[in-house]
Design goal:
- By secondary structure, the chain is α/β, with parallel strands linked by helices.
- The protein has a domain of 145 residues: FAD/NAD(P)-binding domain (3-Layer(bba) Sandwich).
- Helices cover 30% and strands 24% of the residues.
- The protein contains eleven helices and 15 strands.
- Strands 5-6-4-13-14-15-12 form a seven-stranded mixed sheet, with helices on both faces. It has a six-stranded mixed sheet with strand order 8-2-1-11-10-9.
- It is elongated and about 75 Å long.
- Pathway: Carbohydrate metabolism; tricarboxylic acid cycle; oxaloacetate from (S)-malate (quinone route): step 1/1.
- Belongs to the MQO family.
């Protein structure tokens, strides 16, 4: 009996208490961490990451398109309504949100939190490219509608083969001149390395005495305490040691691992979330003879009935200071929710309630093609 009480007391004494617990070491958690530290510098904060470094999953520069999403090229943000008009409201909303991100990053550069802007953001023109009479008509209407917003001033439209060839010579090389094509060109687009932003944000947080980073640590359980705080239990994957943390505020920024943690938390909203992993891989080249003939993030138009994430890209990227080109996506499939996840992720996420939710969603809309998780999911 004495031994049992002693063991219980030791476990209670080992429970760490923090104001903020961030689960996941990606762009979402790191951004929130920097923001909260700015507002409440005295708050204690902890970040728990399953891998042995931050920004190694979805935020990694090789695992996303790196597009500074400002709706300059993504045609799914500007649908054509039944009356023939182009709805630009979503595009304006997306663009405004990205401008806020840029202002936030600029502020962090001025304060020394982020170093060398060219290490994480680079000017890269954004292009929408279409072919066929109907798509050319749509793109011209889209261009004209976007001129109503100052956010899209400076965008150019052309259906002239020679002009488009000047913008993207690699894309037009060998193309039939009789084919109807059109493009919009926005020179003020950007390529963003979210992994680099994440690493710099976390490096700054690590310099603060109130912050703790725990790597190779996998969250196994989340419970609500009687006082409203959260008890999070995690295991160090190298030592096998288990640790409990009580947090006043809990943020789950775990990407593909978030669903399981939401389910563990017991919040009612988690019952209505479902996930189905479908991926996309991109071809990659670093050949300077090819890379130097294309400087743009060029987006096509998804086929009718296909999800917007299946849009073909020819993307200029700048990763670790080096220019590359991605082309794709090509559909892949895995039952993993994360590249470094388990093949049992899909099956482990399924409950009877969620199977009903999945079926209900599927009945409302069944996509005609795969939904890519992001570029280079299967690129070695």
């Amino acid at each position: 009996m004495v031994v049992s009480l002693a063991a219980f007391s030791a476990q209670a004494a080992d429970t760490k208490k923090v104001d903020v617990l961030l689960v996941g070491g990606g762009i979402m958690s790191s951004t929130l961490g920097v923001w909260l530290h700015e507002l409440e510098p005295d708050w204690s904060m902890m970040m728990v990451e399953r891998l042995d470094g931050v920004a190694q999953e979805s935020s990694n520069g090789w695992n996303n398109a790196g597009t500074g999403h400002s709706a300059l090229a993504e045609l799914n943000y500007t649908p054509e309504k039944s009356n023939g008009k182009i709805d630009i409201s979503k595009a304006v909303e997306i663009n405004e949100g990205f401008q806020v991100s840029r202002q936030f990053w600029t502020y962090q550069v001025k304060n020394g939190v982020l170093k060398n802007p060219h290490s994480f953001i680079n000017s890269t023109p954004h292009m929408s490219f279409v072919w066929g009479d109907e798509n050319v008509r749509y793109l011209k209407k889209r261009y004209e509608a976007l001129q109503a917003s100052p956010l899209f001033r400076g965008m150019q439209f052309s259906d002239n083969y020679d002009q488009i060839s000047k913008w993207v010579p690699l894309m037009m090389e060998g193309r039939d001149r009789s084919q109807k094509v059109a493009a919009t060109w926005m020179p003020v687009g950007t390529d963003v390395n979210f992994g680099e932003i994440t690493r710099q944000f976390v490096a700054y947080l690590q310099s603060q005495p109130q912050f703790t980073l725990s790597l190779s640590s996998e969250v196994r359980d989340i419970k609500r305490n009687d006082d409203g705080t959260w008890r999070v239990s995690y295991v160090n994957l190298k030592s096998g040691d288990r640790q409990d943390v009580d947090a006043k505020f809990l943020f789950i920024g775990a990407g593909g691992g978030a669903l399981r943690l939401l389910q563990a938390s017991g919040i009612p909203e988690a019952r209505d979330f479902a996930a189905f992993p479908v991926g996309g891989s991109f071809l990659v080249t670093e050949n300077p003879d090819i890379v130097n003939r294309h400087l743009a993030k060029a987006y096509g138009k998804a086929s009718v009935g296909s999800p917007p994430m299946s849009v073909p890209h020819l993307d200029t990227r700048v990763i670790d200071g080096k220019r590359i080109i991605l082309f794709g996506p090509f559909a892949t499939f895995s039952t993993k929710f994360l590249k470094n996840g388990s093949y049992m992720d899909l099956f482990g996420s399924t409950t009877s309630h969620k199977r009903h939710a999945d079926a209900a969603r599927g009945g409302r809309r069944v996509p005609a093609g795969p939904v890519p998780r992001g570029p280079t999911d299967a690129v070695g």
